[in-house]
């Protein structure tokens, strides 16, 4: 995001030796340490859980969208029970995120 100009440009700087976004990793580590030290570990765990389930939800939506946009594309992996399985997962993930009060 720093490289694309969507966040602080300083965070997009790539480490010369490891080729990783070193400044962004430092910032992330400092923020996580602050949440842990402040006694907000539960908040950190809740944020991680929310982001993880949101990513899973978007991944399942992506599967359906890509299969509709590119129906003739060769697929090395097939989703078991498609399209019922992804729709059930989307429904569960959406219910979970709304039920938790995160959205």
From TrEMBL:
TM stretches of this protein: 23-41, 47-67, 79-99
Intracellular or extracellular location(s): Membrane
Membrane disposition: Multi-pass membrane protein
Molecular function via GO: L-amino acid transmembrane transporter activity
Highest taxon listed in the record's lineage: Bacteria
Xref: InterPro entries: AA/rel_permease1 (IPR002293), AminoAcid_Transporter (IPR050598)
Pfam families: AA_permease_2
GO cellular component terms listed in the entry, alphabetical order: membrane
Stated name of the protein: Amino acid permease
Origin species: Niastella populi
